[in-house]
Amino acid sequence: MKIYYKKKFWASVGSLVLGLALPGTCLFVGWERFDWKDIVLTVLLLLCGASGILRSLDREKARQDKDEDRDERTRYNALRGRAMAFRVLYWLNFAILAACIVGWGLTDQLVYIQTALPCMVLFIVGWITRIAGDFYYEFRG
């Protein structure tokens, strides 16, 4: 048995492990918190993991998956989606930070500052990451 697409194989093994982790923890904690949502999530993770492993062991299916992953349009759409997610999270973080500052200014309660500090750190890290990325790609090519 040969693994033809190792990236998909290990991702599928991870999905299987996550699918088994939820019922596994319920063995130790107790089954009273295990409801329908957990059953559906477990079944989906197990099925996705099993199908991924089977696809990575089949030569033709693995070749199709590799070709799809290497497709320029698929990669372009993935990069555009990541960039959009970064922009949305960046501005959402800015909005939360602004709301915390306004809330602190109106009520003078420290809970707004305690909420604003992690948002400010994430905002600054996003800024530094963006500048570093711009420099990296400017001087790279």
Largest sheet: none
Q: Structural class, judged by helices and strands?
A: mainly alpha
Number of separate domains: 2
How much β-strand is present in the residues? under 5%
Alpha carbon gap, first and last residue: 42 Å
Shape: flat
Mean pLDDT, as a whole number? 90
According to DSSP, the number of beta strands is: 0
Give the SSE string: HHHHH
Could you explain the architecture of this structure?
It is built from 5 helices and no strands. It is mainly alpha-helical. It has 2 domains: 65 residues; 68 residues. It is flat. This is DUF2178 domain-containing protein. Keywords: Membrane, Transmembrane, Transmembrane helix.
Would you summarize the structure shown here?
With 141 residues, the chain is mainly alpha-helical. Helix content is 89%, strand content 0%. The chain is built from 5 helices and no strands.
